[in-house]
Amino acid sequence: MKYITFAVPCYNSENYMRRCVDSLLIGGKDVEIILIDDGSSDRTAQIADEYEIEYPDIVRVVHKENGGHGSGVNKGLELANGIYYKVVDSDDWFDKESYQKLLVKLKAFTGERPDLIVCNYVYDHLDEGIKKSMDYKNVFPIEKQCTWDEIGKFYPSQYLIMHSLMFQTKVLRESEVKLPEHTFYVDNLFSYKPLPYAETIYYMDIDLYHYYLGRDDQSVNEKVLMKRIDQQIRVNKLMADVFHRCQFDNKHVKKYMLSYLDIITTVSSIMLVRAGTQEALDKKRELLDYIREQGGHITLHD
């Protein structure tokens, strides 16, 4: 039995992917690791193949034409055999002790497994020795299966991101989440669309996922985001589409998703204002009009 399928989309990742993969291999035969070589031009493909040869019961490799991060996530989900599905970016890694605790818990579950497992993540400025853990102790009961009706309040700037979430594979497939290709910031959509399908949640107060910060070309870098603002807007609109088409059975899920959509729209609006051009301001107006035309009730920042 594979408890977790890890999908690791890799694009020109030769300089850091070993740190990621080595941290996941600790799970042994209880997990599967799918390395998706997304048309890399460096030694990524060779390194991935070396892992598959050395760990044939754990590692699978997919070589494909470049389609972007979302394409890799889609391919991993298509092939996944694990009970849970977890995306790990190739420059990130797992904490060993927390990972072992997670696996012990997954094996100990009796009865129906939770649809969604939430863990802490760590902003890790590895090169500077600076770390910041992001937890959800104010939102979820610790190590107790709960529903959306039992959660606490999110802080205004607090939300669930891909690094903190691990959905059951069947839940993701039921939600029909599929990410657009050649588009950055699709992790927001992956963390969003499946939520109404996750009826039960289990939170572990462990710092599991280390989110590396420090590369100049990272998509979260403000200058990079400004250059890719059209992709941010595309994801923003797709999230608005999801919200307005969803038939919510739970008001707490709806409230959270409304808040998250508001946050993403605020980020888009601020970036467009900071661009300081008429073209950017026109794009901001068009985005807000798009949401209004769908009957949106989020807080629109004019």
Instruction: Report low-confidence residues grouped into runs of 5 or more.
Output: none
The level of helicity is 25-40%
Q: Give the CA-based shape.
A: globular
Distance between the termini: 52 Å
Please write the string of helix (H) and strand (E) elements: EHEHEHEEHEEEEHHEHHHH
What value does the average pLDDT take? 93
Structural class by secondary-structure content: alpha/beta
Strand content: 15-25%
Number of helices: 10
Number of strands: 10
Main sheet record: 10 strands, mixed
Radius of gyration: 19 Å
Task: Describe the secondary structure blueprint for this structure.
Elements: E1 4-10, H1 17-24, E2 31-38, H2 44-54, E3 59-64, H3 69-79, E4 84-87, E5 93-94, H4 96-108, E6 116-125, E7 130-134, E8 146-147, E9 165-168, H5 169-175, H6 187-190, E10 200-212, H7 222-227, H8 229-245, H9 251-275, H10 278-293
Parallel strand pairs: 1-2, 1-4, 2-3, 6-10
Antiparallel strand pairs: 4-9, 5-10, 6-7, 6-9, 8-10
Describe this structure in words.
The protein is α/β, with parallel strands linked by helices and 302 residues long. It has helices at residues 17-24, 44-54, 69-79, 96-108, 169-175, 187-190, 222-227, 229-245, 251-275, 278-293, and strands at residues 4-10, 31-38, 59-64, 84-87, 93-94, 116-125, 130-134, 146-147, 165-168, 200-212. Strands 1, 2, 3, 4, 5, 6, 7, 8, 9 and 10 form a ten-stranded mixed β-sheet that branches. Strand 2 (31-38), helix 2 and strand 3 (59-64) form a beta-alpha-beta unit. The longest helix has 25 residues, at 251-275. The radius of gyration is 19 Å and the shape is globular. The model has no long low-confidence stretch (mean pLDDT 93).
